[in-house]
Specification:
By secondary structure, the chain is an alpha/beta fold. Helix content is 40%, strand content 18%. It has a single domain, classed as Vaccinia Virus protein VP39 (Rossmann fold). Helix 3 links the parallel strand 1 and strand 2. The chain is globular. Bound molecules: S-adenosylmethionine.
């Protein structure tokens, strides 16, 4: 019976995996290394708070974050923010990239929960906020949830999506947290990386927070430590 259940789960996992974005083994390793480093550093340095992921699709990075947080005995709750309908259409030229296609990478919410279960994520350790960011994030301004974020993982590809996320994160920034951009080095022939552009626009004029370059994530991503500028002043 146990064996049959295992086979059923494997078949279901394969079926769901086939519908989610294909990343290479090396890319998975790059992300895994990042979560290992990040949660090691957060635990070692006593930075508490939750893991907030913007773009959760196939629960791959979500499960890596869960297992690395657990391994490093970090008590983070996990938050998945996603439309669960795939990428929105480009709203402007800054959103354009040959690989960002509207409606691609759609994982219906029930499948996302199944993937979380199959990937061993504790049900009581995570929360899901479905909807396009421009609609799902502003209502949370009232509740303030999640109140304390130690690691924000931005994997929503587009410039406008990243701007929505950074506006949401702005009042939640704190010294010592990490912000990661999965597509920081995904530029195109005539555009900068949308995630990088949004980050530069928001932080170049920020008087309070400095982003210290931290680790790369494979060939495609980069992460930063948020530093309180007042601590840098001599
Ligand atoms: C590359 S996938 C994320 C992959 C995921 N981290 C994983 O490991 O499977 C990008 C995700 O961002 C979501 N997304 C992009 N822009 C969004 C927006 N404005 N609102 C909500 N979700 C968005 C898409 O639905 C898609 O699931």
């Amino acid at each position: 019976m146990k064996w049959q259940l295992k086979r059923l789960n494997l078949a279901l996992k394969r079926q769901l995996d086939n519908r989610t974005y294909k990343s290479s083994r090396r890319e998975r390793r790059g992300r895994h290394d990042f979560f290992n480093t990040a949660f090691k550093a957060l635990s070692f340095n006593g930075i508490d708070g939750d893991y907030a992921e913007f773009g959760s699709h196939g629960a791959l990075t979500f499960s890596q974050a869960f297992h690395e947080a657990k391994r490093h005995k970090h008590t983070a709750q996990l938050w998945a923010f996603d439309s669960f309908q795939g990428l929105p259409a480009a709203a402007m030229e800054k959103d354009e990239h040959p690989k960002w296609v509207a409606s691609e990478m759609a994982t219906p919410l029930n499948e996302f929960h199944k993937l979380c279960q199959l990937r061993g994520i504790d049900k009581n350790r995570y929360h899901v906020v479905p909807g396009f960011f421009n609609e799902s994030l502003p209502p949370l301004a009232d509740t303030g949830e999640p109140r304390n974020i130690c690691l924000a993982y931005i994997d929503c590809d587009l410039y406008t999506s990243t701007l929505d996320v950074l506006a949401f994160l702005q009042p939640r920034l704190k010294h010592g947290m990490i912000i990661a951009f999965d597509d920081y080095y995904c530029w195109s022939e005539n555009q900068l990386s949308g995630e990088r552009l949004a980050m530069l626009e928001v932080f170049s004029t920020d008087e309070r927070w400095h982003l210290l370059p931290y680790t790369n994530i494979g060939w495609h991503g980069a992460s930063f430590i948020v530093e309180d500028k007042s601590l840098l002043a001599t």
